[in-house]
Structures
1.
Amino acid sequence: MLKLLFIGDIVGKPGRQIVIERLAALRAEREIDFVVANAENAAAGAGITGAIARTLLASGIDAITLGDHVWDQKGWENEIAALDLVCRPANLPASCPGREYVVIEARGFRLGVTTMLGRQFVGMKAECPFLGAERLLRELAGKTDGVFVEIHAEATSEKQAMGWHLDGRVIAVLGTHTHVPTADAGVLPNGAAFMCDVGMTGPYASVLGREIKPVLGRFLDGMPRRFDVAGDDVRMSAALVTFDPATKRAVSCELVTVRK
């Protein structure tokens, strides 16, 4: 059996620090073969930089995925192409810089990693994620032994639909973006691991990683405020998928929570 750990949205410095401090021990303890992380919120809660990406990769992450905040940091569009283990959402326009997927290898198994951006309640210009997934599976045929698809989406229905759409053709379909871990981790009938949202890696004494008071104030009176990243109750939230490399079917999917 092989094991894939997928770490949910890394938020700001607290999220980065817990990954840097705890991932190596977790990887050794659980005998994890692949580690993938969504790090689109790693730079002050919005976007990522080249320096941050390299630090996270050095901590034991094998591949980094991104989402709708991919272009939030100034200059990142000039850095992304040089980072071989970082991929942007694959269904963004083809003219966007960066890779649509990465391939990582462990114990002779080549795992393709890609992200599809949802379109329900998400403002970015993107092609249909279902058609995008079909296109990527064709592109990855012969280049990988199995594929992991992240669905970075707001709507639970869109995430569930993607799971059913790809069940039996990929090893896992795991969701991100809403920052709250869901209680539906499991394996679909044809062998794809699935979870609507693996949660956030960052401060949980917060509103989606941000300080509570200004967010609450915005809800109460609608006035603009600065939403700084919070700092308390820091956790790493991830999904751990165990799969059979011979059948390319998952046998288990579980939520993993590491507290600081």
2.
Amino acid sequence: MIKKVLVTGGNGQLGKTLKELFKNNTKGLDFVFTSKEVLDITKKNDIDAFFRNTDFDYCINCAAYTSVEQAEKTPEIAYNINAKGVKNLSEACSQNGTILIHISTDYVFDGEKVEPYLVKDETNPINVYGKSKLLGEEYIQDIMTEYFIVRTSWLYSKKYGHNFYKTIVKKGKSEKELSITTEQKGCPTDTVNLSKFIIQLIHKKRRDFGVFHFSDNQVMTWYDFAKLILSENNLLHNINLVKINNYRTFARRPKNSVLGM
């Protein structure tokens, strides 16, 4: 039987990666990709109407407000999308028997732990972005029983969106020196690998609902990641890469973003 899968936030880097990899996948999945213009998750009536018109077996929620810096300046927008929008989506999924796969973040933790963060560890976000994402998780857990919350870290695409990977490649081609912090550590995660993990949740018909951690599981600092990116793109010889142990940022950021599986 063909499973119908709704993907919200289809114009983001993860949504576009899912579309590239699985749009023409005929292994029993029929995808509907929506952008904010087609389906705005902050508008409850629009979501309810959308679900009334189509029966979805799964909903992959890639819609999110991800600007950590801007979230501090306009918290109402972050909460509207990352919390209220997720609440709207959770209610629609619950009422229509749709399994929700929601993408969350390492920023629900404060970064003070030395070891990798486990699913069972206490959350304690230190910025608006993390707080809004955690509230979205809590809405899902309050409203639904059949859901997968997938926390990931340092998500990037080599092809889509605005992210650290693409920024470093661009700077490697245009600048002579680049200063990158060693103050934070995490596990950069390629949208390709996260997309494959998400689809496996569906193909394997997993019923062990709850919170999961997923990353590419290679621990590094932002400096290490920048060096890897430049090397991968044959740009390391073009630029002087400098280590710094501070990072000027408006929002507080966790120093340890490593997620344990």
